[in-house]
Amino acid sequence: MDYSSLVDRIDGESVDVWTIHYEARKRQHNGEDIIILSVGEESDQNTPLPVQQTAINSISGGRHHYTSVLGDERLRDTIAKRHQDRTGQPVSADNVSVFSGAQNALFATSLCLLEHGDEVIVPEPYYATYPASVRLGGADMVSLPTDVGSGFQISIEALEKALTARTRAVLLNSPNNPTGAVYSRQLLQSIVDLCRARDIWLISDEVYAEIAPEDFVGIGSIDGAGDISITISSVSKSHRMTGWRCGWTIAPRPLNRHFYNLNMCMAYGLPPFTQDAAAYALESDTETALLVRERLSRNRQIIADEMADMNTARLHTDGGGMFAVLDIRALDMSSSDFAWNLLATQNVSVLPCDGFGPSGRGLLRISLCLNEDTMRTAARRILAHVKQVLA
Q: Residue 254: enclosing H or E segment and its boundaries?
């Protein structure tokens, strides 16, 4: 039997990088002493109890029927207010669409903005789902290389040079997954000015915004961004709600109407009890994001201290997000081989960045999400493996 051409556009190296994570989970499930640092999730933490209880009360109160296709009005109002308070961008519920996670929000954005033959510029290294998310509707992804020496920052000159008559959008992720790179207000203003001048959409994935350094700047804060930008976020990282699958877009109202039409035939709205829990989290829980940020900061320092004696390999812990990056390009082996050997000999899973674009080759993404003792043990095992490779 034949399949559509879509199956080829959503396949590839970026999908394959997850194989090692699934193997680690299987081995851990079977009782092996595996430390999983291959996913951005605090798997040793639960969603705050008051948030859980809100969902339970919601179900008990009968909130388990259909809800608004774009999202519950209370949740959309809450998202708009929180976004406006954080960025200063004047928005309302009419600018908000609720999706089953930020990934689904990016999927919908791609379908509503991109055509066959369009180009989307994506800075490297990029999150592994981006290629399929861009290409699923037939658009082409144009990678914009960055390098370790510049802190993985975008060159505005390189971005301008990459633009063509086919460029339809620029997809940003700050703090970046995997590198943690945070883009400055000055850089973002230059990107917005360039996109406005060329009539190009700007898609900003800001799922780490609430746990980012205090000087983080969202695209909504930038002059002129409002009518050309889509901000994507969720409660997954900020409120320890990865499995609740609740994300959203902040977009111009005309685009929001298209999201309504797409959601009508795609998801037909999220469960109301999930949305009630998310609304409560955004309205009432200001502590969890700070706790997550503090934990990540401590773990950055732990892993930097424990892995200081690596000689040729280099560890990058600057910026925000949930990850550190290990540069093993001097070890004369691929990041995939290093990761699989690390899992086999040290029982630690990290994610090779081979599927994060050419700039990711020779890099490994290390999650900083577990408790301090576990992070310390994992760092020592990774260091032992580096020294074993060098021996």
A: helix 253-266
